[in-house]
Amino acid sequence: MNHSEIKVDEVIGGILIILLLRAAYLLPTIIAVIRKHKNKAAIGVVNIALGWTFLGYIFALVWSLTSSNDRSPIVINQIAHQPPQAPQAPARTPQLLASRTIEAPVIDVLSANQNKNLKSNLEELKDLIDSGLISEEEYQAKRKNLLS
Fold first, then answer.
1. Cα separation of 132 and 83, whole Å?
2. pTM above 0.90, yes or no
3. Among 39, 63, 105, 145, which residue's beta carbon has the most beta carbons within 10 A?
4. Tens digits of per-residue pLDDT, 71-114?
5. Is residue 114 part of a domain?
6. According to the model, what pLDDT value does residue 68 have?
7. Of 63, 133, 51, 60, which is closest to residue 92 (Cα–Cα)?
8. HEC-encoded secondary structure of the chain
9. Average of pLDDT values for 132-146?
10. What is the crossing angle of helices 27-34 and 54-65, to 10°?
11. 15 lies in a domain?
């Protein structure tokens, strides 16, 4: 056997080693492409330009493994969809409360809540009298009605 003869298996082995080394060098770019990272082109540039340095390679590898989820809202037909907002009650001043008598709505609120248990109805009634929305007589009458 001559030293000038080239063995086919050595050539194939050498080519495989070169391909594996290139794949290992481009691993951050390969990962970014497989994961469909939004910055895959930039990761590829950093990997190819700075991958020969240890820090450039590690930076590109970590970047390719980070989450690429874009959390910005999706706009369809350029219509912004906002959740419905609850209507706000008009601001009440103490003078306005003192000048109005609120008998029927208070009784309606309490009668509409009859599905609640007795304790919550009594607490709601107590809150109404504490806030001055009903008189002591109305409180006693409604409390008696609830307890009977």
1. 35
2. no
3. 63
4. 655 555 555 555 666 666 665 555 544 455 555 555 555 555 55
5. yes
6. 66
7. 133
8. CCCCCCCHHHHHHHHHHHHHHHHHHCHHHHHHHHCCCCCHHHHHHHHHHHCCCHHHHHHHHHHHHCCCCCCCCCCECCECCCCCCCCCCCCCCHHHHHHCCCCHHHHHHHHHCCCCCHHHHHHHHHHHHHCCCCCHHHHHHHHHHHHC
9. 87
10. 10
11. yes
Residue where one domain finishes, among candidates 65, 86, 111: 65
Domain carrying residue 101? 94-147
Burial track 17-42 (b if 16+ CB lie within 10 A, e otherwise): eeeeeeeeebbbbbbbeeeebeebee
Q: Which residues of 97-107 are buried (b: 16+ CB within 10 A; e: fewer)?
A: eeeeeeeeebe
Cβ neighbour number for residue 87 with a 10 Å cutoff = 6
**What confidence score (pLDDT) does residue 62 get?**
94
